[in-house]
Amino acid sequence: MSKQHELPLIEPQAQQENTRLEARLVKTIEMIRFIGAAIAIALGLKSSNPDYRLSAALFVFFLAGITGLESVFLGKISARSKKWDEGSPYQIQSACNNLASAVSMIILLSIGASDAALATLMMTVTIFLQLSGINHFVTVIADKMKGKDIAWIHFLRMFFATCISVAVGFTLAKWRPFNSSV
């Protein structure tokens, strides 16, 4: 093929940076999610009259619901803040999974589902969060080895996911929603 007939190479565009307002918005959502999850876990771990059902509901709403909404409505700025590719179909797939968990909790609460049902959904969100934290960690290590610029939130995500998993484990052990008197 002659030079005249060669297809031009398309240079990848540099990733756009978030504005200060966008960056602040993403950090605010992260803090709301973290504080909400801490409140939810504290409700389940408090020593006198713990409210496990409210704990499970808030936990799912703050971690799965807010994450799902963020991914759908603020996906591009969220991805940029984490130095991920924008518009990934996996981001939307993850958002759908998270929103499905939040909607499931609404349905379970509406029909007066058992404690075991709420606890199972709380466990599912916890396990997803832990696996997602591991994925973030492995991906960021691979990206760093390739010389890519990384966001340190990925390392923190695995650490916080592990802390949350342990706290939820204690909450479920105290709650004992799977012990049946039958």
Summarize the structure.
This protein has helices spanning 20-45, 52-73, 75-81, 89-110, 115-145, 153-175. The chain is mostly helical and 182 residues long. The model is unreliable at 7-13 (pLDDT under 50).
Topology:
Elements: H1 20-45, H2 52-73, H3 75-81, H4 89-110, H5 115-145, H6 153-175
Tell me the overall shape: elongated
What structural category do the secondary elements indicate? mainly alpha
Radius of gyration: 20 Å
Straight-line N-to-C gap: 78 Å
In what range is the share of β-strand residues?
under 5%
Low-pLDDT windows of residues: 7-13
Helix and strand succession?
HHHHHH
Question: In DSSP terms, counting alpha (H) and pi (I) runs of 4 or more, how many helices?
Answer: 6
**Percent helix:** over 70%
| Total number of strands | 0
Q: Averaging pLDDT over every residue, what do you get?
A: 89
Largest sheet: number of strands, sense, barrel closure = none
